[in-house]
Each structure stands twice: as structure tokens, then as C-alpha cells.
Amino acid sequence: QVQLVESGGGSVQAGGSLTLSCAASGLTFSNYAMGWFRQAPGKEREFVATISWDGSGTYYAYYADSVKGRFTISRDNAKKMVYLQMNRLKPEDTAVYYCAASIGTAQAMASSYPSKGPDYWGQGTQVTVSS
Question: Do 79 and 21 touch, CB atoms closer than 8 A?
Fold first, then answer.
């Protein structure tokens, strides 16, 4: 049974930083693209970032334009963890952030959403940025 458990959400002032973590279990982690998505109140869930590993030491990461240059996604295959470092946070980053996993590449995960959603979702963690 696949489980994705997020942690690290909270409240922060604009300009601050937060790091989200996601612990994965029940899957062959290195075979999966891992990603972060978010959903603000009254809005559709949107793609934030994704990362995959090609099996030979190269990681591939893709970001939504709205977070490029401020957020960094990373993964630790040995620990089955994925992280989202969020800097220079803005009030519009306020949302529930979801960890997700899809078999395949980060590019596929990013380009196929929302027509095709990830294979697995976490429960989400709230991030609130105040002005």
C-alpha cells in the first residue's frame, strides 16, 4: 500500500521560507517521479514542481513559472523522501500542498497534468503566507 505523508507546513510572513517534506512508502521510490502540487481555496489544484532520477545519477526537475527561482525540489532516494524548499514566499503561495508520485519521468508528470493526474497523492499540508 503506497503512502505519501507530508510535513513541514505552517504559517509564515511574506518573504519568509518553509521546507516541506514528504515520506514515501510502499513503492519502488527511485522508479517514480515525485512532485508537489497545491490547491488554494476556491481554485483548482495546480502543479508546483516535480523531480525524477534517471538511474545513473542525474536528476531532472521542472517547476511552474509562478515558483521558478523561489522554490527548489529535491529527493533522497535512500530515505524515500522528497522536499520542497520554499523561499521568498508570497501571500499567493497560500494553499494546501500535496505530495504526489507517478511512475515515469518528471517531464511527463509536469506536462500531463491536469489531463492525467499522478498515480498517488498524499493528504496535504497547509501553508499560509501572511502579508
Answer: no
Bridge partners for 44 per DSSP: none
Q: How far apart are CA 6 and CA 15, in angstroms?
A: 22
- Determine the Cα–Cα distance for residues 75 and 98; give it in Å rounded to an integer: 15
CB of 94 closer than 8 Å to CB of 111: no
Give the residue among 66, 75, 64, 71 at the shortest CA–CA distance from 109.
Answer: 64
CA 65 to centroid of chain Cα atoms: 14
The torsion angles phi and psi of 96, rounded to 5 degrees, stand at -90, 125
Task: Summarize pLDDT for 54-90 with one digit per residue, the tens.
Answer: 988 899 999 999 999 999 999 999 999 999 999 999 9
Closest C-alpha among 37, 35, 20 to residue 85: 20
Interatomic CA distance for residues 49 and 79, integer angstroms: 20
Cα–Cα distance between 67 and 83 in angstroms, integer? 15
- Closest by Cα among 55, 36, 56, 17 to 96: 36
**How many alpha carbons lie under 13 Å from residue 113 in its C-beta half-sphere?**
26
